[in-house]
């Protein structure tokens, strides 16, 4: 409640829901009573709080005006709707411990609105220091969904969680559950070993007897010699009761190379890599084959040292025809496939669109695009899908069209400044960024610009080198460009191995580690903080970037981008996406 229409009390902006003007007071000033609240607060709560205020119940703050009036108010109520008041009274945001207390109270009172808000808060504020407390709280109150979120955080951020003091208080059965999970994400077995040792040494008299069982969760044969030397240097082995365990661990580490081939730590990511269609060159380099198959990365596998692998399984096939140079998008958990080419002739361009539902394992034919396109780019923004530029035989096109899933229809938006093909568009911070590509003269471009469906293009800082048919992905607050083709000083088209990152805040490009092999026309994706590049070919001899026949190279860069890491490929047929 605020009183007096004169500016006696400076206030921050509040949403005025209702206002009632009362008769003038004795001093001649008109008194205005207004109920101020945010839209997401229930009005009846404020009516109740008004009754509390009028009776001075639980009021904890006295506001004084210049003319000597005073208002007895509830500081949390004012702080809830005004950041200015929040700063003045020194109220801070909830801590996680307070969040747990309020959640417990909401549970006891069975007040669903407050409970939903508390659960949302606990999930949003979870971090390495709090995740184990959240998991314990969720388990105690049988909150299945919250427990899944907390456990998942522990598993995906295990290395950081294992360094916290609360990790050492983890019950043994909970620790074993995490160590044996296929969702445990660790860069090496040494991380797992150090976590186990830290937990044991926190209470050695009690926990040394559990060492044998816990060490079974560590895959010692996957360690390098350098890593195992750290294991050997541990003072814990001086305990006579652990001599037999150390000998068993040493024997396990020294197991034969043949036995090692099948040993790995299997990691099941939260999201799956899916490979759709494309073309491949035959083994004798005499012909190319177009595919309509879908493959998905079922698991990531850590082998000895830095050796990694991906297990690919066949998911199924897309409807006819098989296609390449097409585009894909994901919206609301469903996969969209657009355009491309069905063969290598001039009349083989496609305008068809399909949607795949992974839960039903079914395909749905959608409305065709208004133009046939290949070597174009697709982005998802605000629930709509945009098809940008591309090759529309026989010319490149500058047109952009927008697909509305609700209406199953396409409509043209503002065109590009020039026809483009082989460019890449990505969404970052709610904006569409477009890099590189080929113009109508078949020249590679170094350009980078923002595209707005209503106002068109706004040009930004150029890349250091021109590129087309490359990859670009949004990761963190930046955009990373890799691979593709470029032109040399003689205007000859060559493979582009250089990579660079764009910082929108500084409008600048910075180089990072070059690719080891060419990746022209490759696929790419960001998954769990890593930039993956899949397949492609070499402009020099048009050979596929493959390990062997019907296999795909997959490269992953760590977020620090100190190096690219090659992941070997294992394939296994699997019908129905299982």
Automatic annotation (TrEMBL):
Gene3D superfamilies: 1.25.40.420, Kelch-type beta propeller, Potassium Channel Kv1.1, Chain A. Keywords: Kelch repeat, Repeat. Residues 131-232 form the BACK domain. This is Kelch-like family member 33. It comes from Echeneis naucrates. The gene is LOC115059124.
């Amino acid at each position: 409640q605020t009183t007096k229409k004169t500016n006696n009390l400076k206030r921050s902006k509040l949403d005025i829901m209702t206002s009632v003007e009362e008769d003038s007071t004795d001093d001649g000033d008109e008194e205005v009573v207004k109920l101020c609240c945010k839209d997401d607060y229930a009005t009846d709560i404020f009516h109740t709080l008004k009754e509390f205020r009028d009776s001075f119940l639980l009021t904890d703050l006295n506001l004084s005006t210049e003319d000597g009036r005073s208002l007895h108010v509830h500081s949390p109520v004012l702080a809830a709707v005004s950041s200015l008041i929040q700063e003045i009274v020194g109220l801070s945001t909830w801590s996680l411990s307070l969040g747990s207390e309020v959640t417990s109270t909401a549970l006891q009172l069975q007040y669903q609105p407050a409970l939903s808000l508390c659960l949302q808060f606990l999930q949003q504020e979870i971090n390495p220091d709090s995740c184990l407390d959240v998991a314990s709280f969720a388990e105690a109150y049988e909150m299945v969904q919250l427990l899944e979120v907390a456990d998942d955080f522990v598993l995906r951020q295990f290395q950081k969680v294992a360094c916290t003091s609360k990790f050492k208080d983890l019950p043994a059965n909970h620790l074993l559950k995490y160590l044996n999970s296929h969702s445990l994400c660790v860069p090496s077995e040494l991380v797992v070993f150090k976590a186990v040792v830290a937990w044991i040494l926190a209470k050695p008299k009690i926990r040394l007897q559990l060492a044998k069982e816990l060490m079974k969760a560590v895959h010692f044969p996957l360690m390098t010699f350098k890593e195992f030397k750290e294991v050997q240097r541990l003072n814990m082995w001086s305990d006579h009761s652990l001599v037999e365990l150390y000998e068993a661990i040493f024997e396990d580490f020294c197991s034969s190379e043949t036995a090692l081939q099948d040993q790995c730590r299997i990691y099941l990511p939260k999201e799956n890599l899916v490979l759709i269609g494309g073309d491949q060159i035959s083994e004798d380099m005499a012909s190319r084959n177009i595919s309509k198959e879908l493959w998905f990365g079922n698991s990531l596998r850590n082998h000895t040292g830095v050796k990694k692998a991906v297990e690919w399984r066949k998911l199924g096939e897309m409807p006819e025809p098989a296609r390449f140079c097409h585009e894909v998008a994901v919206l609301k958990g469903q996969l969209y496939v657009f355009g491309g080419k069905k063969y290598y002739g001039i009349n083989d361009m496609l305008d068809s669109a399909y949607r795949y539902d992974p839960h039903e394992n079914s395909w749905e034919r959608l409305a065709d695009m208004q133009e046939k396109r290949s070597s174009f780019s697709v982005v998802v923004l605000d629930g709509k899908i945009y098809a940008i530029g591309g090759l529309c035989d026989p010319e490149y096109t500058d047109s952009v069209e927008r697909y509305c899933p609700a209406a199953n229809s396409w409509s043209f938006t503002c065109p590009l400044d020039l026809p483009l093909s082989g460019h890449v568009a990505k969404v970052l911070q709610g904006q569409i960024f477009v890099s590189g590509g080929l113009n109508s003269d078949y020249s590679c471009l170094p350009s980078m610009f923002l595209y707005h469906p209503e106002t068109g293009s706004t040009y930004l800082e150029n890349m250091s080198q021109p590129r087309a048919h490359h990859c670009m992905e949004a990761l963190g607050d930046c955009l990373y460009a890799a691979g593709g083709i470029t032109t040399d000083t003689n205007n000859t088209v060559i493979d582009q191995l250089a990579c660079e990152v764009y910082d929108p805040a500084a409008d600048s490009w910075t180089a990072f580690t070059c690719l080891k092999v060419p990746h022209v026309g490759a696929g790419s994706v960001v998954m769990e903080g890593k930039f993956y590049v899949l397949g492609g070919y070499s402009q020099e001899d048009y050979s596929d970037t493959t390990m062997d026949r019907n296999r795909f190279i997959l490269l992953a860069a760590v977020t620090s981008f100190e190096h690219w890491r090659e992941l070997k490929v294992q394939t296994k047929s699997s019908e129905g996406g299982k």
